[in-house]
Each structure stands twice: as structure tokens, then as C-alpha cells.
Write a sequence for this structure.
């Protein structure tokens, strides 16, 4: 966690702002009304309620899908706790002026779920991470997060997914 705080500090040094420039470049590329509409819909894929709903539906499937859904729910909870702790510790302003920008929770949600899916269904790895990346991109394009917020959210989500998968596998094999 201290490394994440150090990254935010470095990125906010006066005159050294690649984070702001990268975020503005992305927002400019998605500034058309159609792009904004697509981004508004894409960002919903990382919304916690939708992740819970999707993961819960997975638990209604066969054994492998149920396992995937259970791990996805656990990873969602774990990554959410980490994201909340870091958000409170860092208390960075969002580009739109809101509070608690760092790290991106939507991105963390999407990447934790993508990681679980890729562990259980490697044939869908590319699609899962494409959608997770689209969620992260949407958070920047909609002016809700800085680029570094999204990168940190992705890292926390991936770490949460792998950790939950390892623990779940270890416990289920005992």
C-alpha cells in the first residue's frame, strides 16, 4: 500500500504530470456524444451491483461455473476492501472534482472478475481482460478517474483475483 501512496505523490509533483496528460489525451479521443454514450454503458460492467449479479448467476451453473462465481464474489469483496482502504488513506480528488479517486473501484472489480474467469476458463482470458480494460478506459474517458487510478485499480483487482483463486484452490483441496 505504501508503494501506491508513493506513486500518487510522485505523479502530483509540480511540473511532472504525465498522469494528467495521458488522462486528457484519452478523454479527447472519446469526446464525441456516441463515444461518451458507449463509455457510459461500458462503465456499468464494473459496477459492484452488476458484478454481484453476474457472479451470483454463475453460482447457479454447473460445478466449474459455481466455483468461478463463488471465487468471483470473494475476489469482489476482497478487492473492494483493499480499494476502500487505499481510497481513504490517499484521499485523492477525482478529475471531475469528486472525492476518493485513487484507485478505481470499477476497474478493480472488473479486473478481479476477469482474473477469476481467466483462471477457470483460460479460453476466455482475452475477452475477459478486454472487457476489464474497456471498463478502465471508460472511467478515464468519463472524467471519473486519472490514468494512474485505473492502473492501480487493475493491479489490485488482478492481485485480489489471483490471491482468492490460490486460497480457494488450497482450501478446496484439503
Amino acid at each position: 500500500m505504501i508503494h501506491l501512496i508513493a506513486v500518487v505523490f510522485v505523479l502530483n509533483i509540480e511540473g511532472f504530470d504525465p498522469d494528467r496528460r495521458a488522462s486528457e489525451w484519452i478523454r479527447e479521443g472519446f469526446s464525441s456524444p456516441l463515444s461518451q454514450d458507449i463509455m457510459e454503458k461500458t462503465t456499468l460492467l464494473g459496477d459492484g451491483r452488476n458484478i454481484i449479479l453476474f457472479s451470483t448467476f454463475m453460482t447457479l451453473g454447473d460445478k466449474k461455473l459455481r466455483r468461478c462465481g463463488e471465487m468471483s464474489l470473494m475476489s469482489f469483496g476482497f478487492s473492494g476492501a483493499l480499494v476502500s482502504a487505499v481510497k481513504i488513506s490517499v484521499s485523492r480528488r477525482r478529475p471531475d472534482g469528486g472525492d476518493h479517486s485513487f484507485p478505481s473501484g470499477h476497474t478493480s472489480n472488473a479486473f478481479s472478475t476477469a482474473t477469476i474467469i481467466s483462471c477457470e476458463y483460460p479460453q476466455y482470458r482475452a475477452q475477459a481482460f478486454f472487457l476489464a480494460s474497456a471498463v478502465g478506459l471508460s472511467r478515464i474517458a468519463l472524467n471519473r478517474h486519472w490514468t494512474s487510478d485505473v492502473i492501480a485499480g487493475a493491479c489490485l483487482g488482478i492481485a485480489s483475483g489471483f490471491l482468492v483463486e490460490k486460497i480457494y484452490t488450497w482450501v478446496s483441496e484439503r
Summary: The mean pLDDT is 89. Residues 45 and 135 are 7 Å apart (CA to CA). The two ends are 31 Å apart (CA to CA). Helices lie at 2-11, 18-29, 33-43, 48-58, 63-90, 105-120, 125-141, 147-172.
